[in-house]
UniProtKB/TrEMBL annotation:
Signal peptide: none annotated. Its main location: membrane. PANTHER family: HIGH-AFFINITY NITRATE TRANSPORTER 2.3. The keyword Transmembrane applies. The lineage of its organism: Eukaryota, Viridiplantae, Streptophyta, Embryophyta, Tracheophyta. This is High affinity nitrate transporter 2.5. GO terms for molecular function: nitrate transmembrane transporter activity. Keywords: Membrane, Nitrate assimilation, Transmembrane, Transmembrane helix.
Length: 463
């Protein structure tokens, strides 16, 4: 068992290769469950060239289905935050996964463009588990390592998209090698993501543990605030402008990442003429960099906080996301296969790191509405995917290369509102903190972990 604060039971250490309960076991269950959701959601895109032939799908049908998958996850992420506040991330996560697993299996039975779009829409709901994932980590790890924990949990989970890009074409080829007709082979392989998602949900229910009951009881004894209703918690989160700004930032970091996951295999298949397996392998490289890129964002966020407090976290996020935008612009202007692959890999590192940096800030926005703020930020990511998918990659208005470059410019512009985020206790990018010692009552809900915040304030006072 890891060392933890007696006041809040959040561990002060993070060992990603440990499975000791309750903290590290919860970490592994959280990322594995979300991994299965990403795998399920992005198991369809790498097979679209085959599915499109068999179902006679038009380009408009494929675009609409891709957008539908993101639209549904906006609603599920918005709802998941308050649900986590009410029932906890373990039950919320497992319930959603179990509800969606049969729909993933139903992909094998689609027979028309309408059913194809509907299945993608419904499967996209499972990405709401991202909010439960981040909520769970924020309630398990102290502020000294929360950026790192959030980064690792989300990044290892996001690899599900890359693994799906790699595995699904290979499974399709394997099944087809047994003389199974093409129209049957692609349907059979969807048994894999559906079963995997159901198994991980059961593991979360059986072995997962949220904050111990005694911790909730102690929190009630320590807290001087009266119990708040669901609407009060929801309203508190929605009225916090920092949550809206982080949602916008996340829209053009994680949202861009999701859009790339949706289009990248088709991009290399159609633009550069590579075969289905090669296109899937290249696309997998984009998603698999999550194994280190997003955690690196968390590490950078925690390291910057160690020396510069929250102001360091904000500056780190702005710099990394701006660089990611510049790389995205460059990728759209390169015509060679090798150059596109190289820029894609570097770009993936920075865009995924910026997502980790974003959730290095989220736990500090509001203690009482952590779930709501997580939901607002997380849904911003999928909203960004809807916007970029619809504006830039639907129809014939822009070529794919031009769309990628414009998306990079949007990333750069939309990173600027970070400069408006200000915490009276800790300051902002250009402003010093206003409260260095005593925190007024109306500001106390910003405080996530009292011992860590006190240490941070002392460090800032010495800067």
């Amino acid at each position: 068992m890891e060392p933890s604060s007696p006041r809040n039971n959040r561990t002060t250490e993070f060992h990603p290769f440990s499975t000791s309960p309750p903290h590290m076991l919860a970490f592994h269950l959280a990322w594995l469950s979300l991994f299965s959701c990403f795998f399920s959601t992005f198991s369809i895109p790498p097979l679209i060239p085959v599915i499109r032939r068999n179902l006679n799908l038009s380009a408009a049908d494929v675009d609409a289905a891709g957008t539908a998958a993101f639209v549904s996850s906006i609603f599920s992420r918005l709802a998941m935050g308050p649900v986590c506040d009410l029932v906890g991330p373990r039950v919320a996560s497992a319930t959603l996964s179990l509800l969606i697993a049969p729909i993933v299996l139903a992909t094998a039975f689609i027979s028309s463009p309408t059913s194809f779009i509907l299945v993608r829409f419904l499967v996209g709901f499972c990405l709401g588990n991202f909010v439960a994932n981040q909520f769970w980590m924020s309630s398990k790890f102290s502020t000294s390592v929360v950026g790192l924990a959030n980064g690792f949990a989300a990044s290892w989970a996001s690899m599900g998209a890359g693994v799906a890009q790699l595995i699904m074409p290979l499974l399709f080829s394997l099944v087809k090698s047994f003389n199974v007709p093409e129209n049957t082979a692609w349907r059979v392989v969807f048994v894999v993501p559906a079963t995997f998602q159901a198994i991980t949900a059961v593991l979360v229910l059986v072995y997962g543990q949220e904050l111990p009951r005694e911790n909730h009881e102690n929190s009630k004894k320590v807290s001087s605030k009266p119990n708040e209703s669901f609407l009060e918690v929801l309203f508190s989160g929605l009225m916090n402008y920092r949550g809206w700004i982080l949602g916008l930032i996340y829209a053009f970091s994680f949202g861009v990442e999701m859009t790339m996951d949706n289009i990248i295999a088709q991009y290399f298949y159609y633009i550069f003429g590579v075969n289905l397996e090669v296109a899937g392998t290249i696309a997998a490289c984009f998603g698999l960099t999550n194994i280190f890129a997003r955690p690196m964002g968390g590490v950078v966020s925690d390291w910057m906080a160690k020396w510069f407090g929250i102001r360091g976290r904000l500056w780190g996020l702005w710099v990394v996301q701006t660089v990611a935008g510049l790389l995205c612009v460059s990728m759209g202007r390169v015509d060679s296969l090798g150059g596109s692959i190289a820029l894609m890999c570097v770009f993936s590192v920075f865009v995924q790191a910026s997502s980790g940096l974003t959730f290095g800030i989220v736990p500090f926005v509001s203690k009482r509405s952590l779930g709501v703020i997580s939901g607002m930020t997380g849904s911003g990511g999928t909203l960004g995917a809807v916007v970029t998918q619809t504006l830039l990659f639907s129809g014939d208005k822009f070529s794919t290369q031009t769309g990628i470059s414009i998306m990079g410019l949007m990333m750069i512009v939309c990173s600027l509102p970070i400069t408006l985020i200000y915490f009276p206790r800790w300051g902002g990018m250009f402003c010093a903190p206003h409260f260095l010692h005593q925190v007024p009552t109306h500001e106390q809900h910003y405080r996530l972990l009292v011992p860590d915040i006190e240490a941070m304030a002392m460090a800032m006072a010495n800067d």
